[in-house]
Amino acid sequence: MRRARFLLSVGAGLVFAVGLLLGSGCGDPDASADGVRTIVLLTPDTLGRRHVGSYTEGAAPRVTPRIDALAAQAVRFTNARAPVPLTLPSHTCMLTGTPPPLTGVRTNAAAPIPAAGERAFPLLAERLQATGWHTGAFVSAAVLAKAYGLDQGFDTYDDEGLDDPAGYSVRERAGERTVDRALDWVGRLPEGGKAFLWVHLFEPHAPYAEDGTYLGGVAHVDRIIGSLLDGLQARGRGDAVVLLVADHGEALGELGESSHGLLLSDATLEVPFLLRAPGVAAGLDDREVRLEDVAPTLARLAAIDWPAPSTPFHGHDVRGAPPPAGRLVSESLYAHQLYGWAQLAGLADADGLQIEAGASRWHGVARAAGTSSTAAPLAHASTEAAAIIARYKGMDDGSARSGGSAPGYYGGDGGAASFLAPEANAQLPDPYERIASHDRLDAVKGATASPRATTEALRGGLAELSRLATQDDRNPEIPFLRARILATLARSRGDDESLWEASREAALAALRLGRGGVGTILVAVDSEAGRARVAGGLEAGARAGLALLDRLEAALGHEDCRLHLLRAGLLADVPGDEALRAREEACARAREACHRPSEQRLLERACGAAAER
Description:
CATH architecture of the domain at 35-81 and 120-307: 3-Layer(aba) Sandwich
Number of strands: 17
CATH topology of the domain at 35-81 and 120-307: Alkaline Phosphatase, subunit A
Structural class: alpha/beta
CATH superfamily of the domain at 35-81 and 120-307: Alkaline Phosphatase, subunit A
Strand content: 5-15%
Oligomer: single chain
Low-confidence stretches: 1-25, 405-411
CATH class of the domain at 35-81 and 120-307: Alpha Beta
Number of helices: 21
Strand order of the largest sheet: 7-6-8-3-9-10-4-11
Helix content: 25-40%
Distance between the termini: 73 Å
Radius of gyration: 25 Å
Shape: globular
């Protein structure tokens, strides 16, 4: 099903040109909305479009028979792309209909989404809940835990067992468990009640557990999706509207990236987008679709209002007239947040990707049938691409940037900044040229993150970090990892003052280079307390740690549960009534700030007996 595209013309600014829509379209936006009683949003994480059989026409191994069977009943959008190749930002776009510059959710270490009265964008579940729909979400990875704020509007938001931190890996649960809990919820719904169900599955994501391969994970998630659809049928909801869409794909070595997140590429941005709904004809549709289109499409299918899109990058109902072409802009600020490398923004069109990595620094990613994409420097971008990307970036006025961050499974700290000026961005290292360093840093993390890491592994990690620092001396992750390794060595040697001091200095160096969040502060303060404790005893260590905490917390500019708990723990080693009152105050502030189950357990350990001292 092909359509003529609306065009973006470039003059004094970008304007919508008049276009002519050919054919009857994907469907009538008002068709059968009153008869819809079950809506299912199904988001298999990391499922690239090129690995779904119904999209490949035999060009790839067919490992998705259940998704393909669903696709035969659905409209398949062949030009759907993720706005960000990361889980939390992409799901936020789906559920808000709002592009990342306006939500402030740019990476997996974003601060929680504000409450309804404190933000300028809607959440789909809130709108549905307010009109009498039962709303349930069942997620399979910690990066979508309640702490990030997507639970707002859901009667049930099931993130069982996903709250606890898991170091540099992401805590996940088996998709079978997620589906069992989702179907149990469906089975307890009142007969005839309207229900919105969101199910997130994580099997295609690394590490690939099924057989050690990505395709094994894809085949596994396909079977789980089949069990969910069978379960809905058995519970009398086989007529559900189903929208299956992935948050991003997987690079698998394309452009030198092994996984996803750092670079913009077809492999990580092209996603399946299948909609089975009343009044929607099965077949192919090549219009440009963004993940922001999920919320308005499902809202209109539920016969509820949704704000009209104010830009081409906001969500549109995919069943209506297509929005203008030139809306497939994607971004990645992750390399900047984590490593201090340049920010990326790119536009996809029929020929490939044009990616800005700073003023006068562009990459072109061309496509050729049967070959992997390749990136090459561009002398300049097309006038249209430069103008469209500038318009996208112009939405970012800094007002959506949230203070603080939640711990992100990819590392990094402090949340992501707004877009830099192109001239400033051009001064930073190019992620496409530094991508090999990412794999080396990941190897260091993997070898040293465990508390049981051997001294040999820790020393090897330090040596590798020293080598990397000679090539990338402004990368804040290098001194941060160095600080963590040195702290581990200091403990293993029964408190080594020189190692504690070196750890503190490395953490402070990471802060100076921009790794300015809570995780870095925790390492710096812990190391300073360790150094002073060795030299002068528990009280001296606590006082030194508190002094550094006072300074760094003031610079942070916002409160955080973890810092209140750290303060309470340090004050436990300071005698006197004044310290007792300060500890009680720290515990009181922690009780207000600590909401995650794991934080509540730490709070009980740190402050449960505070009033008894």
